[in-house]
Amino acid sequence: MSYDKPLPVIDHDSAPYWEAARAGRLDIPLCSDCGKHHFYPRAVCPYCHSDKLRFDTVSGRGEVHTFTIARRPAGPAFADDVPYVVALIELEEGPRMMSRIQTDDPGKVRIGAKVEVTFVKATDEVTFPYFRMT
Amino acid sequence: MSNRRDPVIVGLADAPLEDGKFVTRASVLGHAALVAKAAVEEAGLTLDDVDGLLTAGMWGVPGPGQLATVTLGEYLGIMPTFVDGTNIGGSAFEAHVAHAAMALREGYCEVALIVYSSDQKSLRSRNLGGRPSVLSMQHETPYGMPTPVGGYAMAAQRHMHEFGTTSEHLAEIAVAARKWAQLNPAATRREPLSIDDVLSSGMISEPLHLLDCCLVTDGAGAIVMTTAERAKNLKTRPVAVKGYGEAHTHWAIGEMPDLARLLPAQKAGERAMKMAGVSHSDIDVVEVYDSFTITVLLTLEALGFCKIGEGGDFVSGQRTAPGGGFPMNTNGGGLSALHPGMYGMFLLIEATRQLRGDCGERQVKGAETALVHGTGGTLSSGATVILQKD
User: Fold this and answer.
1) Which residues on chain B place their C-beta less than 8 Å from a C-beta of chain A?
2) How far A61 CA sits from the closest chain B CA (Å)?
3) Residue B239 and residue B387 in contact, taking contact as beta carbons nearer than 8 Å
4) Which of A11, A69, A98 shows the shortest C-beta gap to B143?
5) pLDDT per residue as tens digits for the range B81-126
6) CATH 3.40.47.10 fits B147-215+244-389, yes or no
7) Where are the beta strands (DSSP E) in B184-262?
8) CA atoms of B200 and A67, how far apart (whole Å)
9) Fold exhibited by the domain B7-125+218-242
10) What residues does each domain of chain B span?
11) Which of B67, B160, B187, B207 has a CB 3.0–4.6 Å from the CB of B332, allowing a cystine?
């Protein structure tokens, strides 16, 4: 089945992240100088501007920082998903990342709800880290 | 203390609309040229007097719009020697005023023309299909983030969670804007609107309803700036640019440092008010960007008109409506007058008209000082301008 939603245009900064997701891991950059994780992946730490960064496998646990229930789709490709929950997840390790909450009941999603990552394959190249409430 | 090179606004023009669409038949650049010509002629100048050209837009991309000032200069047949194509979203024009003010003070420019034009409604070209999934957007677009409304919805959700703000609070803003629009013959939507109408208008991206969102219209506007000295021999009564500030924090909403606090507005506003030497009680009329109702709430808090978190109470009881004690968005705003994609130009035009005393039924009596604040991107950028009757 063909995948008709937008796919990430993977670049040199993000390639290790997407490669890990394909293997079922959530890997995000960790700064060797200030010790902070960040997201989205960059070549320079956005906190201390060090370039001594490596990818680190994180817990995949976090909480809903904020969210919206899309009642109108972001373009025709998402029409069949409505209503769906786009959420900003705050990971245990600190950074926030945009994702989707997998749920049968969007009305149950709350700010502060505990979530964990779940990997959803889109194509042979791309697997998305989605989250579900725990 | 005034100086002969102090920056002033001496000309303005906007294009007539009918049902949110241009009345005159012309291309997007044609409308830019028509308002540019009208704005300089209002001041008693011609396009040949213009040596500074500032613009930002969403037309012609990819293509000639990527070099917007160059393309517009070509269309106008002028050779500007000071240009600024700063594009930080809908607040770009407030930043342009700041940059033109600096160029005028420096003697780098004598007559600056700031222009915006969009035919998005006529063309039905507004792209709601999401932002291309490259660079930072590869981590947002694939999840079906509704743009731009989803980012504002996430900020509203966070504000409600932290401070108990309600959908009724947000609806107050939309209803007050409509009451101003009813006093403005040029506004697009003028039929009565109630809080219940807003709440029952249907969810777009929870917690924002259809009527929490701005209009989608065409629109073109231009303003002309020069020095106080040059203005003495011109046809209009100048409005002085007393202070300005700008800042931005993020593009992807996931990168917004604090979704319940609008830091660019706080930074830009503080700077502009300090430069102008004014405090909140000196401001007679406020024109702030209202892409969505939540934009207004966050802006009023960040600018310090009320405490952080108290915006809901502040706008309650139709405080920002005509006669409500806090005259704001007096043309009806982006929510009810017009919103051609990048609305900041029209905040400046309305504030200048108020300070000239040209607003008819909606005129704020005795308006001498105005605060204008644009917001661009997805709560990304902010730029403030303080204007004063000369």
Assistant:
1) 128-130, 132-136, 138-147, 150, 153-155, 157-158, 161, 202-208, 252-255, 259
2) 17
3) yes
4) A98
5) 999 999 999 999 999 999 999 999 999 999 999 999 999 999 886 6
6) yes
7) 203-205, 208-209, 219-227, 239-248
8) 21
9) Peroxisomal Thiolase; Chain A, domain 1 (3.40.47)
10) 7-125+218-242, 147-215+244-389
11) B187
Domain assignment present for A10: no
B136-164: average pLDDT: 97
Task: Sort out which chain B residues have CB atoms less than 8 A from A84's CB and list them.
Answer: 144
Q: Enter the DSSP assignment of B237.
A: P
Q: Say if CB B149 and CB B379 are below 8 A apart.
A: no
Put simply, the answer to whether B205 touches A68 (Cβ < 8 Å) is: yes
> Which ipTM value was assigned to this complex?
0.97
Residue A2 in domain: no
Pairwise CA distance, residues A18 & A127, whole Å: 7
Q: Which residues of A touch B (CB under 8 A)?
A: 5-11, 14, 39-40, 65-78, 81, 84, 86, 88, 96-100, 111-112, 122, 126, 128
Mind listing the pLDDT tens digit for each residue in B323-363?
A: 999 999 999 999 999 999 999 999 999 999 999 999 999 99
Domain containing A125 equals 15-133
**8 Å CB contact between B203 and A69:** yes
- Is it true that B7-125+218-242 and B147-215+244-389 share their CATH fold? yes
pLDDT digits (tens, 9 = 90+) for A20-64: 999 999 999 999 999 999 999 999 999 999 999 999 999 999 999
